[in-house]
Amino acid sequence: MQTKRTTFSGYWLPYALLAPQVIITLIFFIWPAGQALYQSVLRQDIFGLRVTFVGLDNFRRLMEDPLYLNSMQMTLVFAVGTTVLSMALALLFAVMVNNMIRSRDSYSTLLVWPYAVAPAIAGVLWWFIFNPSIGILPYMLDMVGYDWNHRRSGTDAMILVIIAAAWKQISYNFIFFLAGLQSVPQSLIEAAAIDGASRAKRFWTIVFPLLSPITFFLLVVNIVYAMFDTFGIIHATTEGGPAQATNILVYKVYRDGFVGLNLGSSAAQSVILMTIVIALTVIQFRYIERRVNY
Amino acid sequence: MAAIVMDNLHKVYAGGVRAVSDIMLDIADGEFVVLVGPSGCGKSTLLRMVAGLETITEGRLTIGDRVVNALEPAERDIAMVFQNYALYPHMSVFNNLAYGLRNRGVLKPEIERRVREAAAMLEIGAFLDRKPRQLSGGQRQRVAMGRALVREPAVFLFDEPLSNLDAKLRVQMRVEIKQLQRRLGTTSLYVTHDQLEAMTMADRLVVLNGGRIEQVGTPMDVYSRPATTFVAGFIGSPAMNMLPASLLRANGNADALSGLPGNADLVGLRPEDIGLDAVAPGGVRLQARLDLLEPAGAETHLHVRLIDGKTRMTVRLSHVPGLTEGADLVLHAPAAALHPFEAESGHRLL
User: Fold this and answer.
1) Is A15 within the bounds of a domain?
2) Is A283 exposed, middle or buried (0-12, 13-18, 19+ CB in 10 A)?
């Protein structure tokens, strides 16, 4: 493909045009990341008077800390729960909207709305709905004999944050799934119908495999979302509790660093998270093109 | 094996658009019938109604001894070849062919046997492990055919299956499909907008226009006795010349036209029926000027203008005796080659 190439006569203009983006990246991404790396190999004393170089000791301690390992496990449960719930519901909604002829657009618009809600607001919203004293859902659950209390029960708390986090992400997944469904040629589905496949069979043997590139892309995006973008939701609902039950990695960074003021450990945790997100990004870029199975 | 009976079929879309009207057509068992017409004439809609992909608004459709109006596509015992082939892109060729058989619970060894048999018939045996995207256009077309015939259905439906192929391959596949259909003897309904494809393949042609049948007949019938001016213009290439009878009479051809009905105010002349023979007795004689010569290899198309300076005609000759553009010619056509029409209704007279 022929692309038009602009050449600049001087040096300063191209650099000036790039500068805003470069400056933002440097200040808000590279510098903090560098700080985290630097801090992760240091340890401060209680009063903040002395800083010593400890090498990888912060990391070693984390790997031996049962609280940190517990947090990893909780993150896994949370990420898998959020991803599966939001993707499954989004796919269901997308299929239903795709089958509609009229009012498809209005439904799409409504389904996209939650995405515009800030995580903290989403958290508060679900906090109200699930509030053990004044919430509507615990009241209804009580009628069927379930005593909901996410302040006491770790399981309840985990379910709450998963629902709140998934609810927000459904919109995003929905848009992608709907676009994917609309790009499946109608003639394939007709051919399958003539070939004697039932509706369900057509979906699982024809449509779903054709969605696999999108499904894989969303899988990675959702894991990243659940692991890194859900701080606001956790903070507004459970604050990591009860008893560490929803203290996922990204929230623990904040708790240990800014509440507990253990900067070295907190920095080491961010470095671990950084590694995870880099790995996920690499997977995303390397395999997203190749995982197309047709 | 089955006959198809279309009893007064109608299709009206939600919103009131009439796509297909008053279709009465009997297709005999084993017959190869081609639906032909310009785009938007309802031919594909009619085919899809037979397939069960479009509901039938009114009328009765019988395949074999069953009325199939209310049956799902899968229950109609048909197979269809789509214009874009509609191969399942994530399945190998083998699985593409086997899919319909598996859905019907055919046993594994039987599936294996039938797929191999169909693949051998279409010479795609070497590609069974490949995905559709690894095949050329012609090979994909064969796979699409294979998927239809592996099911051994009572009726084949073809929806412009050759329109995505290049000209050479199209001619080749045309012959192969026709031969295959003869050998299997399966009733076939074939949709195309290409009148040459329609002429060469059909046992019987159905010319559609505006959702209605204009004419049904064998290709030669339709060609030699087009029932309407539309059919006359659509079948045959270059298209039939249509001349006002008054123009012919005014130019000294009143005698030649005397045998035609009095209300024949439009006369059709096929380009291939016109010659340059100035001395032939009888028939129609016209003076014209040669505007453009179009050599097409074995034949040459002459674009001429009659002496009134307005009316254009096309003449098709196999031999051009040293003509140059701008030359004055005398055209001749025998009286038997005249097709009389009534202009207002567009119907053929005689």
Assistant:
1) no
2) middle
